[in-house]
Structure formats: structure tokens, C-alpha cells
Amino acid sequence: MKKIITILTFAFFSINSFGQSAVTFHNYSAESILGDTINFSQYYGKKVLVVNTASFCGYTPQFADLESLYTQYQQYNFEIIGFPCNDFNNQDPHDDSTINQFCTSNYGVTFQMMSKIATISADTAPVYKWLQRQNLNGVADAHVAWNFNKFCIDEAGHWVAHYIQTVNPLDAVITDWIMSPSVISSVNDVSIASDNLIQLNGSNSDNTTINLKLRNTGSEKIRVNIFSIDGKFISTIYNGNDVADQTIIFSTSNLSSGIYIVNALTNNSQQTIKFAVVK
Domain 192-278 carries which CATH code? Predict the structure, then answer.
């Protein structure tokens, strides 16, 4: 028997009632230091500390503190993502392979390291634009002015805080935040905005299907897809012009236990709902 649980509903490309952008950290992806694509949606349900790193900086010893933080707090649904950058005084000039070897050999780094990016130049990585610009993250402007700046991202992918390089990874402001209660609401706490494209109306009596209601968008075409939590496409469950009270019934019989994403998309807007299947 499978149970289907709604985890969180939110609409993209707007600012929610709490001031946070509905474009979250989980909407982004980047290349890892080993060349794989990392979809940040896979960190749903975990607090994340994002750090721009450098191999030849006065703050480089913070790698040891970051690894210590990760070792101590990973058990509490916490992750660290390091982005090497060479933006400040040419302090990380080497390629990804050399940087990776440096991090593992000198500091035993086991947290996720990414491919080297730009954080402040014209070709700044999209996720770092989101981290630094209030009009994208919905919370605050936060200019990265040196290596080892730290950004706190909550379980739902929202921007929480920015700390400059002088704040040690093991500082209480970070460890207290890691141990603070999760921001993820239970199904009973989820409020459905009136302008949502799609609403999850629960499951059938034997928990083998989910029932989705589409909002009437008039003549605008809507496409609804199912993805795994790591961003892999599973199937298209609707593609057409929806009408009032249109209901989609989707079978979960072929899904294993885990978190999945329903994505509804029109030409002008987008929304996701995350749900869990538990056998």
C-alpha cells in the first residue's frame, strides 16, 4: 500500500506574502566539480550553506571548519555546497581537477563541490545572481565581496541569510540556524493561492492515484509534467487548453517511494507541487 503526501505547494515567478521570491534555490542547477549536473531541487527538505571558495586565500583554512560543520550536522538534514571562484585576486586560478585534488588532499572535503564559476563578473552564474539580488530572491541584496561568503538556504529553497568571510562556519549564528525548526509545512498548513494554475486535491481511497484540479486559464495552453526530485522527466500528464473544474487523475503505481514534482506551465506562468509516495 502506498501513501501519497502533499509536501509543499508554491507558484513560480512572483513574490509570496512573506516577501520571499517564489523562484527558489531549487529552481537552479549547476555543474559539479566532477562534471555532473546537480539539480538543486534534490536538496528539498534540507538546509543548505552555499559558499564561494578559493584555494589560495587567507580564509582557505575555513575548508577545515566547513568539513567539520558538515561532519557534525549532516545528520540533521544539512548540506554544504562549495563554488570555487577566481574573482578575487586570482586566488583560485587552476582547473576543476586541480581544485578538487587540493580540497580532498589538504582538507579531506566530502561536501559537494561545484565547477568553478564567476560570482561578480558579467558572466556571473545564474544561481549567484539569485543569491545576491533581492529582485530575484525576494529577500535581500547581498553583494559577494570576497571568498568564503556564506548563504543560508532553508528547506523550501528560500534565501535566509548572508554572512561575509569573517564569520566562521562554526559560528553559533550558523549552527543555531541549522538546528532551528524546519520551515516546511505539513499538508494541513498549505494554503492554495487563488491564482494557482493547479491544485492537488488528494488521492483516491487506495492511495494509488493523485487527483489534480486545473484552474481555468481560458484559451491559454497548459502543460503538466511529472519529474523526480532530482529533475528527471517522468511523463506528461496533461497538454491542452484546460476548462473550469478540469481534473487530472495520475496513477502512482509505477513510482517508487520518494519525492516527486508536478510542474504546470503556460506561456506566462509556472507552478510546482511536490508530493511524496510512501509504500
Answer: 2.60.40.2550
